[in-house]
Amino acid sequence: MPPRSTAALAGVPPAIQSRLEAAGLRRTLATRAVLGLFLAQPSGGLTHAQALGALTARGLDINRVTLYRLLDRLAACGVLQRHTDEQARTWRFSLAPVEADAAEESALPRFECDACHRQFRLTDASAPTRAIAQDLLDTLARLGHHGERVDVSVHGTCAGCVESAA
To answer: What are phi and psi of 28, to 5 degrees?
Structure first.
């Protein structure tokens, strides 16, 4: 497939564009709209229903099954991350790290607010904390498995939600 014009992906970081191209994903209106949702709120996490509602509010009529498939494909190629929301018993999707060293970034623990579902990477995590994630991946590799990432998350209430509740 020939590369699309950069105008079709204006505002999309080059790392994300590369991931889309490597996965062979077409830049349909739905793909651009979904990317726009997540780029507009990079620390937010959306459920399928919330993404569908936001797209509908923006005037995009997208089939819910098409959206499910698109979210899964974007997660599979590393553009989005998929996390379990135990309270709602559903998946939440958020923008994956787009930094040059995304592997190291994805090993960072994160804090997820149970009220607003924003996620914060704990970039000040100590070296031993980061080493634990790498040790788990190394252990899997020695056993012949291929670990993609280690998800360590702390749940609670972010400072903004604590202030607004007070």
So the answer is: -75, 170
Pair (18, 72) in one structural domain: yes
153 and 111 co-located in one domain: yes
| pTM of the shown model | 0.62
pLDDT tens figures, 52-100:
999 999 999 899 999 999 999 998 888 888 887 766 678 888 888 765 4
User: Domain of 15?
Assistant: 11-98
pLDDT (tens digit per residue) in 108-122: 677 878 887 777 777
